[in-house]
Automatic annotation (TrEMBL), chain A:
The keyword ATP-binding does not apply. It holds the Pfam family Molydop_binding. Its cofactor is [4Fe-4S] cluster; Mo-bis(molybdopterin guanine dinucleotide). SUPFAM superfamilies: ADC-like, Formate dehydrogenase/DMSO reductase, domains 1-3. Catalytic subunit of the nitrate reductase complex NapAB. Receives electrons from NapB and catalyzes the reduction of nitrate to nitrite. One of its GO terms (cellular component) is membrane. Component of the nitrate reductase NapAB complex composed of NapA and NapB. This is Nitrate reductase. Residues 1-26 form the signal peptide.
UniProtKB/TrEMBL annotation, chain B:
Keywords: Signal. Residues 1-23 form the signal peptide. The keyword Signal applies. It comes from Parvibacter caecicola. This is Cytochrome c-type protein NapB. Residues 29-50 are annotated as: Disordered.
Length: 852, 112
């Protein structure tokens, strides 16, 4: 583009305006608002309207919003210009968020299923009192806990607000001494998480959203940001339009809306992205195009277990391959280079189908140090049978070229959910985690947690062994090995893969869902509630106070704006009421167990919180914040110092500052009484400008290459780990000749349980379509609007075919979103997972497609 | 956006077409996609059915041509709802320049 954006807009507008105006003869519509005078202003100023600060409850962008309520009802949700993540922007889902609360069928009373034979139907649930429902859930949980606590489970979410996630993890891990708790973030972020931990020994992105505004070249890897991270994609296109020299390379298996802004689309055969990434790394080394200084100062090299197979079988984790997937060994740079050597451009082309010249062009983009390069990736990388490995391979390229943790120059794994970072990862609601990156398997981490939770020393040794990860949880449930399951902030009966098995629609020996006692906390009836024994009606979003932590480490509070409908209750209240019943009569170190864990916020005799929701959230936050501020707890401070845990490295600020500042990115440092956020982690520079000055000064080393210091990593050196290309778990065959890929689309959040109840969003995207290549349709005798059956070795579903859908798959591939429960694409999706992260591969199920 | 009713909008369009007179219907910029939509404060209107494929083929310019403003055109000429001020650089329509991230129109205005 050789004209400025201003000229571009003007010129285009002039040309198009005359054509458009021609048909109207210049009639004046007289629409009530002048250009630029938002019609919303009048109602926003109306008497009785109350404004509160919030954050969108949908995707991982974490857009700040201003919520307006009047007479106990939300009247608008608009962008919050003071939120540093979104700066007033949002997407269509966020702007319609108020309506998502007002579906006709909100759950307002507890429901109980008396007859298990009605499971899987839309009937069989009757209204109950809270006491009856809570007594029943608590009794079943306690019964299972006392009998065999390996047979109970909690499945949480990256949509669970922070303090609730913290309290839930504390109850499960310290109260029940169980690690059978895992979030749905296992389905979206686990590969990124394991990548972070393996490489950096800390689970966090170094960059921030401002990198999008500063980079010169975007490389999207397996990422349809236009649909899944709309606000960030708007910034990407804005950056590109603002500077005609900015480039975008889209590395993808199918053409998406995100491809529209790409200068070049590198469309690769599913699973072959590792071969491409390795070829780029090899090209950089072979041609001496890597950054020697950066590599010498910052990077150590490793290789790990290979030929690790795939997790088809339930016993995979315990197999020889499964047990050794995490093993790595140090190698030299020369050995690392030798491992990469077979990955020539030609080999990568052969494996991936991407022309060698295009791969070389991308390698040279990375090599050009006069320009900044930002890699962005999402589920195409993470939901991958080698998802953790592919995360490694992207970092490898950035390490070789000295492009990490620098403004506009970095590798950024985008989170999928509003609090996948803040709750699932930071609080630690995974089966192997404790709060603040701590691991159940490490004794010093257990000691540290015991100190903050005021538990006897050694008390948490009972949870030394990680619990069931998500897929294992549902696999065991299907076999009848889980007797109690509580789920919240998710809709597992639509979002889990291999639903034919997990919903008991397949093998006769996998009908466990009908026997397990299932409690579902929900805001609307869903397919999951059809399998629930008890449904607990939950307050939704700003019907209570909460906080989310988004993809750029920003913690933001959403204030309570209105009361929940009917008898719906705050999830934290449900947790307290169930915890007090289950822990009745239990002691820890001679003290009443419930009071020890939650006495600071809840009066169990009175059955109410000790203070307002603001006060309760603040109290729990301050306790959680102690994990990253060890000086607040003498015993913890001593352990932190003795074990060199560096817990201050992820320092969090006092609760109210997050409200006052409309969110803050951690670590938040106290400097002369002021709390200053950090935007660019590990990058030395003025703290007041968002750099990690204090962290580098305290733990790192200044004046190293690029001015960064990876002080959380072992020896202050992140690991470049060689990972080989290994093929997908299954490849197309005569019986199942197509790849099937599923994911999100713009208008609907995940399983659509909220967004499909917003008329405008439903109208914009009323049903799930099977996007197919026209050549495949012709060959199969399919045309747009035909119904087709899609069948894999896991199950099948029926769907309407389109060649004009949102995505354009190549021949041999089809795509459909997973939001529509009447279509339920996950009946056919494989539950094979990355052996390291245990995250399922939703992108590469092999299927047959036939016209119905 | 505006709170005008379907009937009011229809009246406005009728007046516009027949008399080219100022129809102060208070339509506030919300299109009646499908004839049934009524948008609340802050809710971005969906693109009407007649706009199928327009953004995909023309991009932001395809929207700005009728909904934007510059020296040579006026949204009213096209009988199109005007972009609100916050869609422009510095919140100022007089810049005639769409604020960068607002240029990805379908992020907020999908096809209805």
């Amino acid at each position: 583009m050789d004209i400025t954006r201003r000229k571009f807009v003007k010129a285009s507008a002039i040309a198009l305006a005359s054509a458009a105006a021609g048909g109207t003869m210049g009639a004046l519509s007289g629409c009530g608002t002048e250009s630029g005078a938002p019609a919303a202003a009048a109602s926003a100023d109306a008497a009785g309207t109350v404004k509160t600060v919030g954050v969108c409850r949908f995707c991982g962008c974490g857009c700040g919003v201003i919520v307006e309520a009047k007479d106990g009802r939300l009247v608008s949700v608009t962008g919050d210009p003071e939120n540093g993540s979104s700066r007033g922007l949002n997407c269509v889902k966020g702007y319609y968020l108020a309506n998502a609360l007002y579906g006709d069928d909100r759950l307002t009373k507890p429901l109980i299923r008396d007859d298990k034979a009605t499971k899987g139907t839309d009937g069989g649930l009757r209204e109950a009192t809270w006491d009856e429902a809570l007594d029943l859930v608590a009794a079943r949980l306690k019964e299972t806990w006392k009998a065999d606590k390996s047979r109970l489970a909690f499945w949480g979410s990256g949509q669970q607000p922070i303090v609730e996630g913290y309290a839930t993890a504390k109850f499960w891990k310290a109260g029940l001494l169980s690690n059978n708790i895992d979030p749905n973030a296992r389905l979206c972020m686990a590969s990124a998480v394991v990548g972070f931990m393996n490489i950096f020994q800390t689970d966090e992105p170094a960059g921030c959203y401002a990198d999008i505004d500063e980079t010169d070249v975007f490389v999207t890897w397996g990422a349809n940001m236009a649909e899944a991270h709309p606000m960030l994609y708007s910034r990407l296109t804005a950056r590109k339009l603002a500077d005609s020299n900015v480039r975008h390379y889209d590395v993808t298996t199918l053409t998406t809306r995100t491809s529209a802004s790409a200068d070049k689309v590198l469309q690769f055969a599913p699973g072959s992205d590792i071969a491409i990434a390795n070829a780029i790394a090899n090209y950089l080394i072979q041609n001496n195009l890597y950054d020697r200084e950066f590599v010498a100062d910052h990077i150590q090299f490793k290789q790990g277990a290979e030929n690790i197979g795939n997790a088809f079988e339930d016993g995979y984790d315990a197999s020889e391959a499964g047990k050794t997937v995490d093993s790595v060994e140090n190698i030299t740079f020369e050995q690392f280079a030798a491992r990469l050597a077979p990955y020539t451009l030609e080999y990568a082309e052969e494996v991936s189908g991407v022309p060698a010249a295009d791969i070389q062009e991308l390698a040279e983009v990375f090599a050009d140090k006069s320009r900044k390069v930002l890699s962005l990736w999402t589920m195409g990388v993470n939901q991958h049978n080698r998802g953790t490995w592919m995360n490694h391979c992207i970092y490898n390229i950035h390490f070789l070229t000295g492009r990490y943790a620098l403004p506009g120059d970095g590798a950024f794994s985008l989170t999928g959910q509003p609090s996948a970072c803040g709750t699932a990862r930071e609080v630690g609601t995974f089966s192997h985690r404790l709060p603040a990156d701590l691991l159940v398997a490490k004794a010093p981490h257990r000691r540290y947690s015991e100190a903050i939770w005021n538990l006897p020393e050694g008390y948490l040794d009972a949870i030394e062994k990680p619990g069931m990860h998500t897929v294992k949880m549902f696999r065991e449930l299907s076999k009848g090995n889980v007797d109690f399951l509580w789920t919240a902030h998710n809709n597992w009966a639509v979002s889990m893969p291999n639903l034919t098995r997990f919903l008991g629609r397949g093998d006769s020996d996998k009908q466990g869902i009908f026997d397990c006692f299932i409690c579902v906390s929900e805001v609307y009836p869903t397919l999951s509630t059809q399998y629930a024994d008890v449904v607990l009606p939950a307050a939704m979003w700003v019907e209570r106070e909460g906080a989310f932590g988004n993809g750029e480490r920003r913690t933001a509070v959403f204030e309570k704006a209105i009361d929940p409908p009917g008898e719906a209750q705050w999830d934290l209240w449900m947790l307290m009421e169930i915890a007090k019943r289950v822990l009745e009569g239990e002691t820890i170190g001679g003290q009443d167990a419930f009071d020890l864990l939650f006495g600071a916020v809840y009066d169990k005799q009175a059955g109410q919180f000790k203070g307002s929701q603001r006060e309760v959230c603040r109290t729990l936050w301050e306790e959680y914040r102690t994990f990253s501020n060890p000086q607040l707890n003498e015993k913890a401070a001593a352990i932190n110092a003795a074990e060199k845990l560096k817990m201050e490295a992820k320092q969090l600020a006092p609760y109210d500052l997050y409200i006052e500042n409309h969110g803050l990115t951690w670590p938040v440092r106290e400097v002369n009484g002021q709390w200053l956020p950090t935007l660019w982690r590990f990058c030395d520079g003025p703290q007041e400008d968002g750099f990690d000055q204090l962290g580098v000064q305290q733990y790192g080393e200044q004046d190293l290459a690029a001015g960064v210091s990876f002080y959380k990593s072992a020896d202050r050196k992140p690991s470049a780990v060689f990972r080989p290309y290994e093929p997908p778990a299954e490849v197309p065959s005569q019986e199942y000749p197509f790849w099937f890929c599923t994911g999100r689309l713009l208008e609907h959040w995940h399983t659509g349980s909220m967004t499909r109840r917003v008329p405008e969003l439903h109208r914009a995207l009323p049903s799930a379509l099977l996007d197919m290549n026209p050549a495949d349709c012709e060959r199969l005798g399919l045309k747009d609007g035909d119904r087709a059956r899609v069948t894999s070795r896991y199950g099948s579903f029926e769907i309407t075919v389109s060649t004009a859908g949102r995505t354009v798959p190549p021949e041999g591939m089809a795509f459909a979103p997973f939001f529509a429960d009447e279509t339920l694409v996950n009946l056919a999706v494989q539950d094979v997972y990355c052996p390291l992260s245990k995250e399922p591969d939703f992108k590469k199920t092999c299927v047959a497609i036939e016209k119905i | 956006m505006g709170m005008g009713t379907k009937a009011a909008r229809a009246a406005a369009m009728g007046a516009m077409a027949l008399t080219m007179a100022l129809a102060a219907a208070g339509c506030g910029g919300a299109p009646s996609a499908g004839g049934a939509a009524e948008y609340g404060p802050g809710e971005p209107p969906l693109m009407s059915a007649s706009h199928q494929g327009r953004y995909e083929s023309l991009g932001m310019a395809g929207c700005y041509g009728c909904h934007g403003a510059n020296e040579a055109t006026d949204h009213m000429l096209a009988a199109a709802p005007a972009l609100p001020a916050d869609h422009y650089v510095d919140g100022d329509v007089a810049t005639f320049e769409v604020f960068g991230p607002r240029g990805e129109c379908i992020t907020c205005h999908p096809q209805g």
